[in-house]
Write the structure tokens for this entry.
Amino acid sequence: MLDDFFTRALLAGLGIAVIAGPLGCFVVWRRMAYFGDTMAHSALLGIALALAFEWATLPAVFLIAALVSLALILLQRRGGLSTDSLLGILSHSTLAIGLVALAFMPWVRVDLLGYLFGDILAVTRADLAAIWGGTAVVGVALVLLWRPLLAGTVNAELASAEGQSPELARAAFMLLLAFVIAIAMKIVGILLITALLIIPAATARRFSASPETMALVAGLVGAMASTGGLYLSLGYDTPSGPSIVVAALILFLLALLPLPKLPRRRATEEQTP
């Protein structure tokens, strides 16, 4: 079954979607969409680092994303600039440094479009193992961090008073996000990763009565978008990564439609005979 490239692509998309959805909920709740973009843009610098030192791509991208997260935390403590300004500096600086670094390596042939927009159809068995293994690790970590993360999202001061560690949970969440971005890069690409985090979570928000329900629905919406986008790409010969994001957008727009109202039964009809 895994010999078929389309089957591998489907499994890879599902592996990313089921964990990107719950993580994306915290991105939405904490208004960290720009942080997700920063992490994604820093991935190109990680790729340049991997090519320069002949490292594996995934650990190099994760290393750079983790360093950017740490830099953001340290710069926030210094004060002087808003978080949006700091994210803008880090995002565009890492992207620019990555592009300049690649320009200094003319002996390396780089499929820049593949990194920017993904190439899910080129997923190998080793990639599948990394994706599903990473998804399992992040899923277990997210379950363990759920309560302190949720408490810190609602009210950080109250969470600290209750003995939680919201700052530590936030730092751990940033590392988890960096790791997911590193393994998702091959699926939808650097420029579209944030969309896969945010759109399913925003879609699930309307149909969820609790944070846990929203996380589960976001994972389901992400899986539907991944599968639908791949079949859209197969049927119309469109780029796979952007097609997945378009499918997620279609689901989001459908979620905006008014829900059908169930007719109310009259009190006399509700009474038992």
In short: The CA atoms of residues 46 and 63 lie 7 Å apart. The two ends are 57 Å apart (CA to CA). DSSP finds twelve helices and no strands in the chain.
